[in-house]
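To whoever is covering the structure queue this week,

Two jobs came back overnight. Logging them here so there's a record in the thread.

Job A:
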Amino acid sequence: MQGTKNLTEGAITRQLFNLAMPIMGTSFIQMAYSITDMAWVGRLGSEAVAAIGAVGILTWMTNSISYLNKVGAEVSVGQSIGAQNLEDARGFASHNLTIALILSLCWGFLLFAFAHPLIGFFKLEESIASNAVVYLRIVATAFPFIFLSAAFTGIHNASGLSKTPFYISGTGLILNMVLDPLFIFGFGWGTAGAAWATWISQAAVCLLFVYQLKRRNQLFGGFKFFVRLKGRYTKRIIQLGLPVALLNTFFAIINLFMARTASTYGGHIGVMTLTAGGQLEAIAWNTSQGFSTALSAFTAQNYAARKKERILTAYHTTLKMTFVIGVLCTLLFIFYGTEVFSIIVPERAAYEAGSVYLRIDGYSMILMMLEITTQGMFYGTGRTVPPAIISITFNTLRIPMAIGLAAMGLGITGVWWAISVSSMLKGIVAFIWFSVLQKKIL
């Protein structure tokens, strides 16, 4: 398999670390795009943060849809490599990119055309909503870059080359960090400047992936980026990626309703707290997701090669790693929430509200790590439906829980408790479900 790494042999812990560290770094880089925007826009005030925060939920939904081809590539290409099937590896890579382009054009058009009613859902003040619409329409035209980059990342992860997306995404982040203050303050474009900085950075990342595959390392001997879709490949990609895309998209939709509830009980400060707090929570989420994705790629190759003992050893090793990280994130959020939140929004009312969110959310960190790690095991074996069921079920419960707890007198903190408790339940159920099915799967 030209240009790929064989994960079916060698030291398990070292391979997991070598895979996970760049993936984790890439996830942090992607998170840093939003945090960088919020940190600079935060200097304009909490209203400006609320504007890009509202759009942030919609771009989160966009990234969720792109998971169809990211995970579709990680599993389909990874299993093809494990089975030493070069033709399928090429076919799945090409089909994932083609489907990603089609999805991005359709989704980008919808968000651009319906920007006003979508932003209106949050019931923000007119000036905030107006800025959010402009921001959304600019970012929506960059969706093809985002979707294709996600598919490119999945192909490289499946090939054991997770360092490549890390370096490319890192270059994009540096560009974004330079352009943000220049466009927001230097040119005086405000929130629109943050959107254009993101647009240019995402375009650069996509072009670097193209250059990498065409000039630097032609994986599998080279393959076409866009092809006429064939039923066999398309069906398998949809089977693998659609449940993941649906669960993440549904999660974002739930967050839309949670943001509206937060707005009802806390005004624009409530929306700002939910969206900015969610970005900070991503510190824990992206860390565990890095190990989960590494576990998924490792499992995909070894599952196709029928190396069952290596898979179980990798799972238990990953659980130990993510447990330590979960403990550290719990301590950070519970005891230093105010300091962490003030980095994003230095406004007193904002970081005081944010510290409450982080403290409550901190109690769920360890079980959230458990859920996401177990998710990687399900994905690597090609069983993407159980995590979707778990996520959709308990994320849906957030809405009635939030409304009920808020109405009982907890107010906005009731919304935060609904988020924390549901995360705990997802971790417990995911672990039990996999434990029950373990013998059947492996």
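Job B:
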Amino acid sequence: MTATARAFDPTSAEVPTPTGPSVRRLTLSGFRNYEALRLDLDRAPVVLTGPNGAGKTNLLEALSFLAPGRGLRRARLADIDRLDSDRVTGETQKTWAISAEVEGNMGRTIIGTGRDPLAAETGGDKRLVRIDGSPAKSQTVLGDHLAISWLTPQMDRLFTEGAGQRRRFLDRLVYAFDSQHAGRMNSYTHALRERGRLLRQGRSDASWHAALEEQIATSGVAVAAARRELIRGLMPLARAGSGPFPGAVLSIEGEVEAWLDEGPALDAEDKFRTALAGARSLATGEPTPVPGPHRSDLRVRHSIKDMPAEQCSTGEQKALLIAIILAHARLRTRNLGGAPLLLLDEVAAHLDSERRAALYDILDTLGSQAWLTGTDTALFDAIRPRAQCFTVQDGALVRQ
């Protein structure tokens, strides 16, 4: 948890006055199709409309880099750089940068992030982060200042594709409550990767393996425990649904999670270490698959139909996703005093007029800033009087 956040108590009945985050100023430089952009904003919802390819999703992607991780597209940093045309030498690459003045967990803060131009000169992909002008040791510090949730059209396949996407979705929800979760995930995946490298190289130093397996066990159990805690808190709100959005029954499947169901975390760590030691396969030079949170899966069921989400219709799956995001926002408001910043890309296009109006009304109650995009301005008629509306065209914005 952050130093300023209250303890995560899923059973709390207290409902604080919503004081969710908002972006008050956003500046982009060299970010995809934006050569330069500055937006000054208030706390109201932000609506971005314009044709496909105009840069609406690019703007949401820029906002997603104000949180730890690889952004909503999970793109390589170099792929985000803007390509400018040079009459003499052809195309030149301009490294991207973002600056945002935000109202977040720690009050007003200026967050700066972007691709390191010095590393870019040698083909490197390093991301820099500054908080109020001072360099940050790691991008994980961003979670101390801002919680962000998003829905994109690519997430429409969340319930039908592999478990990896569902794990990333769940971890993003955990970040909003526990800013250290990203650091534990990095520690776990790094140690797991290093262990695999040693096994492939046939290096049999028991002390090296024991040290890595200790790191894997302790960080892996912590990751699994954080996910379980989030699901435990989210379940009552998700099951209840949100207005016309159906209830979702959530669970997480995994061997480490099962160990935690059976006993304390220390016992789970012991079982994990034993499994890791027993799975060494130095004779073949290839690591034997081991249990761990890298194999866990988020399961979702439609509460009314009692049907797995992957068997529901496309429209029902979209409604379930929205219901989970809204339940998560309510949980954070109840326990930490504010919902995450919400980035909703092309969500309105898949909803009928009743559900659109209900969604806009629910967003009003959350107290955090929401960013919505779409190609059809009529889809936002119900929220337009209470929103900041912009037309996006070729990397430029015009206030409506």
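Note for Job B: The first strand starts at residue 22 and ends at 31.

Please reply-all if you pick these up so we don't duplicate work.
Q.
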